[in-house]
Design a protein that fits this description.
Belongs to the BtpA family. This protein is α/β, with parallel strands linked by helices. It has one domain: Aldolase class I (TIM Barrel), CATH 3.20.20.70. About 40% of the residues lie in helices and about 15% in strands. It contains 9 helices and 11 strands. It has an 8-stranded parallel β-sheet with strand order 10-9-7-4-3-2-1-11. A 3-stranded antiparallel β-sheet has the order 6-5-8, with no helix packed on it. α2 runs parallel beside α9, α3 runs parallel beside α4 and α4 runs parallel beside α5.
């Protein structure tokens, strides 16, 4: 009885810290088509908005607990500050999605413009943002990227924005600058020094599974929720329930492996059911 009560308290705290209303949330990702100004933008803003809304509706139909929008099609990414048109069109898309679905929203502005993500989130009433590099610097294909927690946290305070900051630890597609990198030390610093509200662990690249040892090191030991941010599938989600505090899923919910593949409500529902079967 005491164990169950303790577990319930922990789940309630986790739900509060993520900014979502449920424990073990399933967050579906809308990978936006190339936005105006991006090299691969095809000139069709109507299609851009319509596909984003359609994908968000498919995620909602499939039973996700929240939806996150991400400028996934804007390769090659700016390292930090994105152009004004990126912010404008992500806000436009976010408002269109907000008008169609009642789920909590999140925002990620790649590669690492947390301040833009916060501004968009504040404008569209989103609950959280994802920041790939909040603290220690990382070597990426965009060059060396440093965290900007000092300005991001001050922006949030100045705006009075009730937006949670989810920060990646050892983010995919990047490498630590320090040769003696410590995952648990980095995670502790993200919480204590950069004030992350939740942490995200990923595999080495988009769609790749995480290392189980990373969850063992972090889950229940850093004082904030730890979510899995890549490699979650219908087959793997059951084994991850209880080992983390939630899931961010994009690739596994698509009808195909291409970047522009559409979200499948059926695949989303199947993954949701696989998670629920273990939670029951």
């Amino acid at each position: 009885m005491v164990v169950e009560q303790t577990k319930a308290v922990a789940q309630t705290k986790s739900a509060e810290q993520t900014g979502l209303a449920v424990a073990q949330p399933l967050v579906g990702v809308v990978h936006l088509r190339p936005l105006p100004g991006a090299p691969r933008f095809d000139g069709d803003t109507g299609r851009l908005v319509a596909q984003a809304v359609s994908d968000a509706e498919a995620l909602a139909e499939g039973g996700v607990d929240a939806v996150m929008i991400e400028n996934f099609g804007d390769t090659p990414f700016f390292s930090t500050v994105v152009p004004r048109e990126t912010i404008a069109w992500m806000t436009r898309v976010g408002m269109e999605i907000r008008a169609r679905i009642a789920l909590p929203l999140g925002v990620c502005v790649l590669r690492n413009d947390g301040r833009a993500a916060l501004a968009i989130a504040h404008a569209i009433g989103a609950s959280f943002i994802r920041v790939c590099i909040l603290g220690s610097p990382r070597v990426t294909d965009q060059g060396l990227i440093e965290g900007d927690a000092c300005n991001l946290l001050r922006d949030r305070a100045r705006l009075g924005a009730e937006v949670r900051i989810w920060a990646d630890v050892n983010i995919k597609d990047s490498y630590a600058l320090a040769p003696s990198y410590s995952l648990d030390r980095d995670a502790a610093d993200l919480v204590a020094r950069s004030h992350a509200d939740a942490l995200i662990v990923t595999g080495a690249a988009t769609g790749l599974s995480i290392q189980d040892s990373h969850l063992t090191l972090l889950h229940g030991k850093v004082g904030v929720p730890v979510l899995v941010g890549s490699g979650v599938t219908e087959r793997s989600v059951g084994g991850l329930v209880g080992q983390c505090d939630g899931f961010i899923v994009g690739t596994a919910l698509k009808d195909g492996s291409e970047p522009d593949a559409r979200i499948s409500a059926e695949k989303t529902r199947a993954l949701r059911n696989a998670r629920d079967a273990v939670l029951a």
